[in-house]
């Protein structure tokens, strides 16, 4: 039986599995981007903005920092049971220059990552039950053809 693939959390990313994008908001007054979305008031201390446009954020970015997570994270992350340690990266988005945390796709170890490495957003299974695979965004290194990885 094929399991239905559904977002683990609603409204945080598009469901285009070929070209997924995180969904954030942008202050109409100062242009600041927010992810997770900000909808009440702008967090820019110099801005009184209270209106926001929903925007699709850059699908690519560069690794700013990374670590591995050996502890079960807090919500909204759900974890497979039993918990499996994974690699997590803080990625600076290409256009917005904001940092977004995410898991790195399975199979990529700490030694495979370096600061400044280009990554792209993919959707991958976070956990599953009998009927569904629950998807979340993960960072996947971009490997240029011919370049040693
Ligand atoms: Zn603002």
Explain this structure.
Helices cover 0% and strands 41% of the residues. With 149 residues, the protein is mainly β. The protein is globular. The mean pLDDT is 90. Strands 5-6-7-9-8 form a five-stranded mixed beta barrel.
Question: Could you tell me which ligands this complex binds, including any ions or cofactors?
Answer: zinc ion
Give me the side-by-side strand order of the main sheet. 5-6-7-9-8
Q: How many beta strands in the DSSP annotation?
A: 9
Structural classification:
mainly beta
Helix content: under 10%
Distance between the termini: 36 Å
How are the SSEs ordered, and which strands pair?
Elements: E1 4-7, E2 23-27, E3 33-34, E4 52-56, E5 60-69, E6 86-93, E7 99-104, E8 118-128, E9 132-141
The protein binds zinc ion.
The site of zinc ion (ZN) has 8 residues, from loops.
What are the defining features of this structure?
mainly beta; five-stranded mixed barrel; three-stranded antiparallel beta sheet; binds zinc ion
In brief:
The protein has 149 residues and is mainly β.
